[in-house]
Every structure is written in C-alpha cells, then in structure tokens.
Amino acid sequence: MHIEKVLNNNAFISLDKDGEEIIVMGRGIAFGKKGNQDVDLSNFKYKIFSNKDKNLNDKLITTVSEIPEEYIGITTKIVSIFENTYNRKLDDVIYVSLTEHIHGAIERYNNGIQINNPLILDIKRLFSQEYDTAKKALEIIKEEFGVEFNDDEAGYIAHHIVNAELNNDMSNIVNITKIMHEILNIIKYHFKVEFDEETVSYYRFVTHLKFFAQRVFNKSAYEDNETDLFNILKVKYEKSYMCTNKIKDFIEHKYQYTLSDEEQLYLIIHIERIVTKSTV
C-alpha cells in the first residue's frame, strides 16, 4: 500500500481505490517509512479507517499526531479484548475518545488530581462486561506507565466502551444508565426480589436494557412484528406482563416514549427469566 503521509510509527495516511483518504493503523506499520513509499501490509496486523465519517477521520489524525503513540496502542488492546471476548463490535469513535481520555487521566494522575465517579456502583451492576474489560485496561495501563488507578477510573473507561458500543454521546450514557436503573427498580419492587447478578439471565437482560434505554432516550421507534406472540405470552406470564405494563406506563409518562408490542414482548420474556432466578 502506498503511503501518502506518515503519522507515527504505527499509522499512516493512504488513499483508497476512489482516491479518498484513509488511515491505516498497526503496530510498527510505518516504522522507518516516509511519505511516497510503499508498505507490504501482509507483514502486519492492521486496521483501516475509511472516509465514511470525515469528521471522525480528522479527529483521529489529530489524536494520532498529537498524543504519544503508546496511548492509541493501549486503546487498540482494550478494543481487541472487548470485541474478542464478547463478540460485539465497538464504534471507531473509541479510538479518539478513549485515547484522549486515558492521556488526560494519566496527566491528571501525575498532577495529583483524582476525579470520583458518582456512577461507579451502577456501572458495575449494569455494564459488568464493559467494567470487567475496563479493569483489564487498568492492568495494561499500570504495566505500560506504572500508574495505578482505582475503580473510579475503571468506571470512566467502561463508560467509553458503552458509548462506542451504542454509538452514542458520552453525556447520553448517564441518561441511559438512569433509565436502566429505573426499570430494574420497578421490577425489583414489583416482585419484591433481589436479582442474582451473576446469572446469564441477568447479563442478557441488562444487555437488552442497554439498547432499549438507548431507543427510549433517542426516541427511536421499534416496529411491531410479534403482536401474536405478545398476545399469547401476556396471558401465559401474567405477572411479568403486569410488571411490563408498569414499565410501559412509567416510560410513557416520564420519557414520552410508547413501547411497541414487540418491546413489551421481550421485556416479558426477560423479566420472567430473571425473576425465576432471583431471591425473595
């Protein structure tokens, strides 16, 4: 591949077949190279950022050019851990947002500044997979920089992962977390149970809630394709349907979002599963 401009040892700018600018990243991929030279990509593991989002590409070029390359290397490791462990893709925005966050967090650490995370308990409960990945990220950061962060920082890194997972703005994640927390509380008090947060059913439900809460906050309509099954299950699982109806009324009143039959159907199924696995 032809190099138009070297950004650092691990990244360069090239052109695709349509002459559009792309960014190619990989460990050591541009080491010892200069603009107007070629590189054999078969010798490297690499990622290509296309020009679909020029604003993101411009931000990435700025990030790669201005922040030491080891920081984006850490982000790349974190993304790889999450995607390979949970088989879920993260939006490319994380290469900008998380790299800049980690760089800023280490600068604050070196200046004796620590920021508490008021949402840390909710993050652990609602985004456990993202939080577990963030804890591994702290180990990578400690190994690379000798900096030892606490759980608050793991919470912030987890938020960036959730943001990239939902392709949402960081400020919206707080609202999405709030909606998830409210729904879980409705279920908890309706059935007077405590959730077993270690079960597969709970993990699956909070994953479902994450995307449901995003639709509520973004007012993204969900088409009805399962009305017949919904009518069957609301009779079969009457108690879970009654709880779902409470959630429906709450969401409509507070967030002006009307749940489709299909959304209610999936809530009934998930509620039935987690309540069965929960303790009174």
From TrEMBL:
Protein name per the record: RNA-binding protein
GO MF annotations in UniProt: RNA binding
Biological process according to GO: regulation of DNA-templated transcription
Pfam families: CAT_RBD, PRD
Gene3D superfamilies: CAT RNA-binding domain (2.30.24.10), PRD domain (1.10.1790.10)
Superkingdom to which the source organism belongs: Bacteria
